[in-house]
């Protein structure tokens, strides 16, 4: 049942933005897979991978940061930050946008969508962020970023159980999310729901045993091929805490066995909220590998 009074966001989205956010288990039609997509992702355990922690403009003290989506202009990141006290206890959450200055290789001072939405709107005129999905008190909401106010709208798929980590498919038709509702495999599972013609969402379906385990799953992200799902799990023989995995759906709607991204992306700490660009060559994710219990955002580039 819902326990944490936290504004929990985890993304959501799907437009492929430098990292954006994210069809589905009952997709039976053919999908147009991008060439070499899986080989790019699988190359993570080989040479040619650079991982760097984002600077202090984004990763500040006494906050836990989680990427939500990247702009299709390759120069803007929306993320959320949980402010905590010295005992790492939750105080409040904010949704932030930071623009990347490629000329100086530096992230700009974050703009709060909650406190300074007007400033974000001016930036968004050329960033073109349309819609994001967030969670408030473990319920899922949508936010139309083209409107004049930051106005979360509650979705009809919410229950008295936990619903978090929403992520929209690239075609905008399927919402992936995490829930501990009955009918799963244990703990938190990944579920999906399809957008109906009336604007509501269909009865959610569990993603099945190729994705979910008796352990907790987290932060689903569908890549732009509408066939490759990135997610985190404590199961699937993770090397410690949450690890990042991928699974692909075939033309018959069957998911492949989950494949770990391996090291150096995965560590014995908690690694999740992994979102990529169109070809899986660049990604952001959150990890507490440097300071246990404190999540920071990292950038990954695959050079081969």
Outline the fold blueprint.
Layout: H1 37-42, E1 49-53, E2 63-70, E3 76-84, E4 90-101, E5 106-107, E6 111-112, H2 117-127, E7 131-136, E8 139-144, E9 153-154, E10 163-168, E11 174-179, E12 189-194, E13 205-206, E14 217-222, E15 228-233, E16 243-248, E17 259-260, E18 271-276, E19 282-287, E20 296-302
Antiparallel strand pairs: 1-20, 2-3, 3-4, 4-5, 4-6, 7-8, 8-9, 10-11, 11-12, 12-13, 14-15, 15-16, 16-17, 18-19, 19-20
Structural account:
It is a single chain. This protein has 304 residues and is mainly beta. It has a single domain (37-302), classed as Neuraminidase (6 Propeller). The protein has two helices and 20 strands. It has helices spanning 37-42, 117-127, and strands at residues 49-53, 63-70, 76-84, 90-101, 106-107, 111-112, 131-136, 139-144, 153-154, 163-168, 174-179, 189-194, 205-206, 217-222, 228-233, 243-248, 259-260, 271-276, 282-287, 296-302. The chain is globular and about 45 Å long. The model is unreliable at 3-40 (pLDDT under 50).
């Amino acid at each position: 049942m819902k326990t944490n009074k936290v504004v929990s966001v985890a993304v959501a989205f799907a437009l492929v933005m430098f990292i954006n956010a994210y069809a589905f288990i009952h997709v039976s039609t053919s999908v147009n897979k991008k060439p070499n997509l899986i080989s790019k992702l699988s190359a993570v355990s080989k040479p040619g991978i650079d991982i760097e922690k984002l600077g202090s403009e984004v990763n500040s003290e006494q906050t836990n940061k989680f990427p939500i989506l990247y702009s299709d202009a390759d120069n803007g990141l929306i993320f959320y930050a949980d402010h905590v006290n010295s005992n790492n206890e939750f105080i409040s959450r904010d949704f932030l946008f930071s623009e990347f200055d490629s000329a100086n290789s530096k992230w700009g001072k974050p703009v709060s969508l909650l406190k300074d939405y007007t400033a974000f709107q001016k930036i968004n005129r050329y960033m073109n962020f349309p819609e994001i999905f967030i969670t408030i008190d473990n319920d899922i909401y949508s936010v139309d970023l083209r409107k004049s106010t930051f106005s979360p709208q509650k979705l009809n798929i919410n229950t008295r159980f936990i619903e978090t980590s929403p992520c929209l498919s690239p075609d905008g038709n399927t919402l992936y999310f995490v829930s501990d509702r009955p009918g799963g495999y244990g703990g938190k599972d990944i579920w999906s729901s399809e957008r109906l013609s009336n604007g509501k969402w269909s009865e959610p379906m569990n993603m099945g045993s190729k994705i979910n385990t008796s352990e907790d799953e987290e932060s689903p992200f569908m890549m732009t091929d509408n066939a490759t799902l990135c997610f985190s799990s404590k199961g699937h023989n993770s090397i410690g805490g949450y690890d990042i995995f991928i699974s692909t759906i075939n033309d018959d709607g069957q998911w492949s066995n989950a494949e770990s991204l391996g090291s150096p992306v995965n560590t014995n700490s908690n690694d999740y909220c992994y979102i990529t660009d169109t070809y899986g060559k660049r990604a952001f994710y959150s990890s507490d590998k440097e300071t246990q219990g404190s999540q920071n955002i990292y950038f990954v580039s695959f050079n081969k």
